[in-house]
């Protein structure tokens, strides 16, 4: 089989393979309600439609792009730019050089590609149009499609060849009265449980902020008994709704490794923290905060291990000293019934690869990589495929909007074709092996592990 035939065969197969995406945050944009970080409205309310018209500016000023744009001098647009054509064009004129200077960044590459696929006009194409004609046309198309959001969501899932996506949400999502299978985006979107509010977000004044899970459970953390009660309540929710996976975010504020901690140590530390709340003393009591979090995380791991629950964990892409997946090794080996899914990993791709190669309960996930840089995704796939068993590689985008998702999926398919074609051409794989790997990476592994 010649080089062109190899590529054509793989490309044809990859383009037809259905997607089961293991990690997405679609709709975490301002038109669905401003977030009170870390609680995005769509993470706590099922079947949530936009609360205002969705525009190109909403897609541009997402949680991923806003830091990049503001670092280059952009400001969040005034309210009028989201409503009036003239104000919108004025804002895009200001943003044009900033977007152009960031045009190679993965998230903007994916957004450009997704806009072209879904609306027929790419971001860069629209920015280059005279008098802003294409910008207005693109903006109008986005507003129109999002006006019937769930129809649009379903249309995008079909257009991208997606059967299901996993979406991390807080406990409030499951106990909301509007939670019904098939409602809104739930035809294609399967919620999985975030542990973050249970663990407590580090906070300057509250030290550990349990507000989200306290609000959902209906009681406050006032002592260690309440903490144990909350953990039990949390897993009752997991059992009732047959939650198929957990997800942990804590790498943004603490090491991903989890130290041992006795209940007595936790009780003493929690007593100190509760007495100090409101004093603005996080730095002073950080050690106590870590002790309480370590206890909670150990209890979560014990319960997950008992239930053989998959466990997605954010690694890399935060503070380098505390996000290396290599720090998880002892935990992985202790809780063998947990399928640990290592998200992101960059710049620790090799460490993640090694863990998945040497531990049968570890999977690697391409989440967020294509949004960082398509080249980073290519590097990761080249390393994963050939070092990690084919049945333990996931693909996902970690997208914020439908447009990011569509562009990210298209680029992921394209890069996977490149990687597999090269490996077949160099006789590292035969064509049948390459086709099998593509099916596993694009959805088969996610579907199998989560019993979708």
TrEMBL record:
SUPFAM superfamilies: Metallo-dependent hydrolases. Residues 290-393 form the Amidohydrolase-related domain. GO terms for molecular function: hydrolase activity. It holds the Pfam family Amidohydro_2. This is Unannotated protein. It comes from freshwater metagenome.
């Amino acid at each position: 089989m010649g080089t062109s035939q190899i590529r054509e065969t793989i490309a044809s197969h990859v383009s037809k393979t259905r997607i089961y995406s293991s990690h997405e945050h679609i709709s975490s944009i301002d038109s669905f309600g401003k977030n009170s970080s870390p609680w995005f409205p769509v993470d706590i309310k099922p079947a949530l439609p936009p609360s205002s018209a969705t525009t190109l500016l909403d897609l541009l000023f997402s949680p991923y792009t806003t830091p990049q744009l503001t670092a280059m001098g952009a400001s969040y647009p005034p309210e009028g730019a989201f409503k009036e054509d003239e104000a919108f064009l004025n804002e895009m004129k200001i943003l044009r050089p900033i977007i152009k200077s960031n045009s190679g960044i993965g998230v903007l590459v994916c957004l450009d590609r997704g806009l072209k696929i879904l609306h027929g006009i790419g971001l860069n194409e629209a920015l280059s149009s005279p008098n802003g004609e294409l910008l207005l046309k693109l903006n109008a198309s986005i507003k129109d499609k999002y006006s019937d959001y769930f129809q649009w969501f379903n249309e995008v899932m079909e257009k991208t060849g997606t059967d299901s996506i996993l979406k991390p949400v807080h406990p409030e999502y499951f106990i909301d009265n509007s939670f019904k299978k098939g409602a809104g985006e739930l035809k294609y979107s399967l919620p999985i449980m975030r542990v973050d509010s249970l663990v407590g977000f580090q906070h300057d004044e509250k030290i550990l902020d349990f507000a989200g899970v306290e609000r959902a459970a209906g009681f406050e953390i006032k002592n260690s008994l309440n903490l144990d009660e909350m953990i039990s309540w949390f897993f009752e929710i997991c059992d009732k709704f047959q939650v198929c996976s957990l997800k942990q975010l804590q790498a943004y504020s603490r090491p991903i490794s989890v130290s041992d901690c006795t209940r007595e140590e936790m009780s003493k530390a929690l007593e100190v923290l509760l007495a100090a709340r409101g004093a603005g003393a996080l730095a002073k009591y950080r050690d106590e905060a870590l002790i309480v979090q370590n206890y909670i995380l150990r209890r979560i791991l014990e319960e997950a291990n008992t239930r053989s629950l998959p466990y997605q964990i954010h690694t890399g892409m935060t503070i380098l000293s505390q996000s290396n997946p290599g720090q998880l090794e002892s935990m992985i080996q202790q809780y063998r019934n947990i399928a640990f899914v290592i998200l992101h990993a960059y710049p620790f791709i090799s460490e993640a690869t090694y863990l998945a190669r040497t531990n049968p309960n570890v999977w690697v996930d391409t989440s967020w990589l294509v949004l960082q840089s398509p080249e980073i995704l290519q590097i990761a796939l080249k390393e994963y495929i050939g070092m990690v068993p084919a049945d333990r590689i996931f693909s996902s985008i970690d997208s914020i909007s439908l447009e990011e998702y569509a562009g990210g999926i298209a680029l992921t398919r394209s890069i996977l074709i490149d990687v597999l074609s090269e490996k077949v051409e160099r006789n590292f794989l035969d064509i049948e092996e390459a086709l099998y790997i593509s099916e596993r990476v694009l959805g088969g592994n996610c579907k199998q592990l989560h019993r979708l």
